[in-house]
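TODO from last week: model Beta-ketoacyl synthase.
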Amino acid sequence: MESLAASDNLSPTKKALLALKQMRDKIDTLEKAKHEPIAIIGIGCRFPGADNPEEFWQLLSQGGNAITKVPEVHWDLKQYCSDAVNTPGKICTAYGGFVPHLKEFDAAFFRIAPREAISLDPQQRLLLEVSWEALENAAIPAEELKGTATGVFIGICGTDYWHQLLNRNPNQIDAYLTTGNTHSLASGRLSHFYGLTAPSISLDTACSSSLVAVHLAIKSLRDRESNLAIVGGVNRLIAPQVSINFSQAKMLSPDGLCKTFDTSANGFVRSEGCGIVILKRLDDAIADRDNIQAVLLGSAVNQDGRTSSITTPNSLSQQAVIKQALKNSKIKPSQVSYVESHGTGTSLGDLIEIEALSSVFAYNEQLILGAVKTNIGHLESASGIASSIKTVLSLQKSTIPANLHLKQPHNQIDWQKSPFILPKNNLSWEKKEQPRIAGVSAFGLSGTNAHVIISEAPDMEDSHTVIRPDSNLFSLSARNKPALQQLVTNYTEYLEKNPHLNLEDICLTVNIGRSHFNHRLALTASSTLELQSKLRQFINQKTPTEFWQGKVNLNSEPKVTVINSPEVQKPLLDLAASMLINPVADLDVAKICWEINDQSSLQSNENQTVIFTKINHELDDWQLLTSGLAQLYILGVAINWQTVAKNFGGNRITLPTYPFQRQTYWWD
């Protein structure tokens, strides 16, 4: 229909109809935005027993229990633990869930001075590392985010390190105490490091913190405040005082087991870790050909209000938040086949949660209830994101892992009349005609409840090239030589475990999905097997063919002019030139280096690097192209990786992330 501006010749009735139509379109657009699905395109995690999503799935699928005795680096068991419950000043359990490197951190990688790093809360350290890993998992180079509307939403509530620093001699308090430990800086530091301009929020709603962070991120993306979001939660157990408090409140399980929904449930076990997801509006993720790992359909948050005590859950509020999340997702309860429960393993809490779930899903034929806390304990402010990541992995693997420590389902629940299934073994969760949909709950000690609805990822069209090049370019880089060597080892081992991976996918992911540092390696390969073989040769200190390495000055990109041979086909030459960020023209004809003769170069009068080249007649056109680009990359020439990707094809996939080179930074 015509616009109002062009409707002068219309009758009053037609003008009114036109205005009504345009108003209806606006309302439909606003209504659609309220329910817009959000894609999860990247995941990073550091959980007990798992340093990344792959290890986390291995732990879950194998029925692993990651709970251990408290490491000495955290606190002294002999001094603070007692078998006698309610002993003043003591913890009733010697167990917990822990992640390594409490005192270690790669401060140089994140451009943090050693003195400042000492005052930096290990929770902020984890957030920096895991957010970087999540971005690499999404194949997003960090530098591409600078100045973008990327939001940061982080759940955090621990203050152990801050209290340790405050309890020192006042003369030891330095200028970095506040910036290193204030919760607002947990999200703010990520925004500062990556140069992000959208909302940056740290929040504390206790156990529901990270799932509330997901809820806020969904709203920010739907409202167009953010175009991308870094979302998650973190928790570190550094000092014994909070555990003593929880013991006195009879919250903790003396035997260190979360026995969710079991008759013997007697409390939870405290754990630490960090989980981060990268979120983007689904339509944008599809258009950008991101690796969509799952879809957030909707979410809701509410409060318990007045109950018998400030920490007592409210079944009606739990029912309401799940119903509101379903409404926000435009989903019926019957469409949900799995719920990852809050499931702390407290007798009262489990009963109240089952009561709420029974009310919402009473007419489901069956509903499987998961409980990740039985594997890794209660991560408190990071527990909701841990539950979400487990759910995403379960969708990807078409398997629901077993709940642990389930011997006798809670005897105050009539399980026979309920739709609930408690998985004692791994259950198949195969794709069907309709998308598989799950719910995730997190209920905070503060009374703040959150629920998120997650669906499987949509099927994506294959983006591999119709005619695959005979050769592809593979690049790796790191901030220092040890990190590069470790990266090569990690990739070699990963490819040996995953020989089915497509070479185009591998090369596209490392080329466009990673930051490019000064210590570099590049090679050409025609198959995944050849790539794997060349990396293995490098590890064994052999020099493969068509393989280059070097160190570049990132502050001074060379300007390259090439004396090329007329034997090179001009169409291919022009294509190669399009793959450089700043190609230098000679007589208005773009030039490119195909093969550097003896790695020699001269400086021209225009302060440009002149590279003498020759043609290797044993290489075909595509091999010439990849060989030339590889050598230019090693010289520090900026490559237009997006153009390279368009010509070589491939999809973003999961590959190893950066190997941080940690050193000890601690206050004592």
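Done. The chain has two domains: 38-455, 472-592+607-648.
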